[in-house]
Hints:
Largest sheet: 4 strands, antiparallel
Number of helices: 17
GO molecular function, one term: 4 iron, 4 sulfur cluster binding
Binding site for tRNA: 221
Strand order of the largest sheet: 1-2-7-4
EC number: 1.17.99.6
Family: Belongs to the QueG family.
Number of strands: 8
Number of domains: 2
Amino acid sequence: MESLETRLKVQAASLGFAACAIAPADVAPQAGKRLGEWLDAGHHGDMLWMEERAGQRGSPRGLWPDVRSVVMLGMSYAPGRDPLALADVPDRSRISVYAQGKDYHDVVKKGLKSLARWLVDQQPGALKVFVDTAPVMEKPLAQGAGLGWQGKHSNLVSRQHGSWLFLGAIYTEIALQPDAPEVDHCGSCTACQTACPTDAFPSPYVVDARRCISYLTIEHKGPIPHDLREGIGNRIYGCDDCLAVCPWNKFADQAAANKAFVGRAELAAPAIADLLALDDAAFREIFSGSPIKRIGRNRMVRNAAIAAGNSGDVRLLGRLQALAGDDDPVVAEAATWAIGRLSV
Length: 344
């Protein structure tokens, strides 16, 4: 009879997971130390929750003392087209590949819960499932389980799936046979470092969120620093540049991509002019079921105003002038900045 671990991986594949591997709970002993150094350097910006729960985040047992094994799962969202194709289309905006389809939190968690129920049926034992919203260091754990390695862009890189994996974790008190950890295959490559338009990498494997476009357009609530705005270009939600240039993507298995993450047509290349006109109701309607919905209308319009200022398209001045009196002062400031850029 096949082992529980083998049957677990077969079941995971049937639920849409492209990768499944197992690590012991103590697999990444240096992760907590690296996290502390990153926080001490202030690289987390105003993501205060990172420091508030650093003790729990530093190791699986810091969050749950009874955990014995960690099952790491990956769902592929490998894009079917070039994520950088809109770089030279200034009147269109760029949304990160991962956010163009269904909300990965919902899709991955549904798969994790189904797999967890199956595992308990096979061998009773307490367990917990996590998708990106708990203090879990998914990437070091995924490397420890053998799914891939943390590349110089700090994200996971897989030899089979490139940089395009959503990660989820099942913590369990069941003792499972672990897989071998993966080793670093980045070598001397610096493609991801040199591709960053805002110089967000102070050193390989370290990202300063305060300069990262994904952080600035998604997590950061206030005005975006002026010296970083030009580098943002037409990106209005996230950034794919450091992921997209990774040479390992040429081996990514497009067939393994979960169909739930196929991009919606209206999110592939939305017109900047349309985004500038959004009110709260229209924002909620367009981005329903998308991870984008969590940033709200004001942050989206702020981002669109910066993209407008970078576009060189004077036809946007009318929409921007209307936003210069917006009730949200951050939106109004971004619109005023963009007007100044387009009026030179």
